[in-house]
Every structure is written in structure tokens, then in C-alpha cells.
Amino acid sequence: MSRGTSGGMSGAATGSRVVVIGGGVIGLSIAFHLAEAGVDVTLLERGTLGSGASRATADVVRSYFAGNPVSSALAVRSLDAYRAFPSRPGTELPLRQVGYLVLFTEPEQVAAFEADLSAQHAAGVDVGLISAEEARERNPLIGDLPLLAAAYSPDAYISDTSAIVTAYARAAEQAGAALRTGCPVTAIDPEAGRVQTADGEISADAIVCAAGAWSASLVRCAGVDLPLTEPIEQELLTTDPLPPATPDIPVTLHAASGLLIRLRGDRLLIGMGYPGPDRESWRRDVALRLAETYPSLAGVALHTAVTGLRDASPDKTAFIGHQPGPPAFLYATGFSGHGLCNAPAAGELVRDLYLDQDPGMDVTALALSPRRTG
Fold this sequence. Notes:
By secondary structure, the protein is α+β, with helices and mostly antiparallel strands. It has 9 helices and 19 strands. It has helices at 25-36, 69-84, 107-122, 132-138, 161-174, 215-221, 279-293, 339-355, 370-373; strands at 14-21, 41-44, 60-62, 96-97, 100-104, 128-131, 149-153, 156-158, 178-180, 185-189, 194-197, 200-209, 232-239, 251-254, 259-264, 267-272, 302-310, 319-323, 328-333. Strands 1, 2, 9, 10, 11, 12, 18 and 19 form an 8-stranded mixed β-sheet that branches. Strands 6-7-5-14-15-16-13-17 form an 8-stranded mixed β-sheet, with helices on both faces. Helix 1 (25-36) links the parallel strand 1 and strand 2 (41-44). Helix 1 (25-36) runs parallel beside helix 5, helix 1 (25-36) runs parallel beside helix 8 (339-355) and helix 2 packs across helix 8 (339-355).
């Protein structure tokens, strides 16, 4: 799936039209879309493909992001691309539709949803307000919460992030991209179009930073001061096997606490914010909220499913932008946990920015701006 680091990198500088830094789902999508458009692309990944934030996901692809119609618009566009992916031989993606349910227990949450609804619909999101009774019908595990209503979007799917990474890597290589793993970037000089690695220097007409949690120092080298927060460690938990009679449920978010659950085989996959320095205290909080929200799960044992570093922006919206060259510098980072849902659109937008094509949407909301740095 990926090539080693020895193919012409050591010693003299190697020419490559575009270098993409980062081999997660964002970087791979960018490499694929550029290569498909006929661009000479080399992708550099410090570890293995998908070894950063892409391995610490709940494997959920959805289109509704509350209060964030920009991310929702990217997700709607991306979901269309994921659905179309089976048309590419050998790159079929698993997508099982389950829906996305958000539980509202406070009047302010309902009011915020209603205020946001027209913008979500304008972004193409299929979402609506349903009653507490219907929410309990869709998720019978919900206990005696003071549930007022819920948001429900049918456009949410269980997928497999590793399969998506593999599919984009295969598609990128089939389109002509070179993927180099175990190749950390040590420095970049965007003005000269040079990328320094432990195996030598690469020259490029354009550099694309899609390095996730490692993006901050790279974009600063290019004179782009993105207000990225420090990388955040994500942890998802899983339960012991559940009783055979456990009903199939939508991906469900408890809005007040951020408790997110979904079924994964005969177990539950659980997330709730970020552990922080006191991981044991966080786990106790998760267990308490789980028991309060879903009483039938009280006392179930919780185990670490996966951990990983995640990039983040202050407004939980990706930064995607372009400093024209030559050499050009582009960035796609700060996805704040939305990367899997935004990756196809991110690849398309970076391609269009680089090639000076119409991206089909207003990209100014994604670029660095005084509004976003404020």
C-alpha cells in the first residue's frame, strides 16, 4: 500500500511538484485528488498511514454538526463522495446507516437547535426535531432523563476508518501518487520550496500541510499563524459484551455531557470529551453519566478501545487555505475531530485551490482570518 523511504530520497534533492505532509485520512484524500487531477504528488508520513488522529475515531461518518454549518457543509459534500466511492474498483467502503440522535434535556439546547436549523438545512443537512417519545423509540436504552426533545439526522453511518485510509491510499497510488511512510519532516522552507526529512531534502512547487496534531510548527515555518490549540489526546472506551437482546440504536449524543455511544459488534463504543491529566477521574465521570443516561448499562465494565492525538481549532472548524506561489503553500488542519467526516471535501478543496479552480463553495470561512483568530 505504501512505498518505503529509500526510493531516491537520500543524497541529492528529489524534484516533486507537490509534497503533502501527513498520511492520515486528510492527507491521503488531498494526495488522491491532486494525483487524479494529473499533479505529481509525493506524500510524507512520519509513521504509518492513518497512525495519528485517523486511528482514534468512532468510525462514524455523519453530516450534522450542531452550531457549525460550515463543517456540516463539508460533511454533506464528503458523505456524497463516500457514497460514490464503490464506483472505484478495489476501493469499496463499508457504510451502514444507523442515524444520529442528539438528546436535549435543557430548554436552551432546543432553542439553539431551532436557531441553527435554517443554516443546517441551507448546508444540505437532513435533520429535524423529534419528540422525547420518538427519541426513546429510536434508542430504547434511554432511561428516565428529563428529556425535552431530540435532534435526529438519518445521514449517519458506521464505517471503518482503517478501510477508508486503505481505500484512499490505494486510489492515490493508482492515480500516480508516491506515498512514503516512516519519513518525518524535520523542517520546511516554503519560500524556497524545500522539505527537509531525515532521508534528505525534497524540492517542490507546492507544499501542503495536513499533519494533524503536528501541524502548528510547520505552518509557522510558512509564516501562517494559525491559532491551533495544543494537540489533545482522545480516548474512546468500550464495554464487555452486551446481552444478546440489546437493541440496535443510532449513534447517540447526550448534549449536556457530551456522552456519545454507538454499538460496535456486541459491545458499546463510548466517548465523552477528553480525559485530561486525571484519566481515572474522567473514567469515573463517564461511568456515572452512562449509568444515569442508560440505567440498564449501570456497572458495565469499561476498557480503553483506542487513544490518539487530535488537532483542534478554537471554533472546531478546519483551517483550509492557500498562499499562492511559486512555491505555493497550502494547509488543511485543525479539524477538531471532524476529519473523517470532512476528508473527501478537504481533498477536493485543496486540489481546487492549488489548481485555481472553482471549489463550488465559499472557502473564505475556512481560511485564516481576523474573525477566526479573534
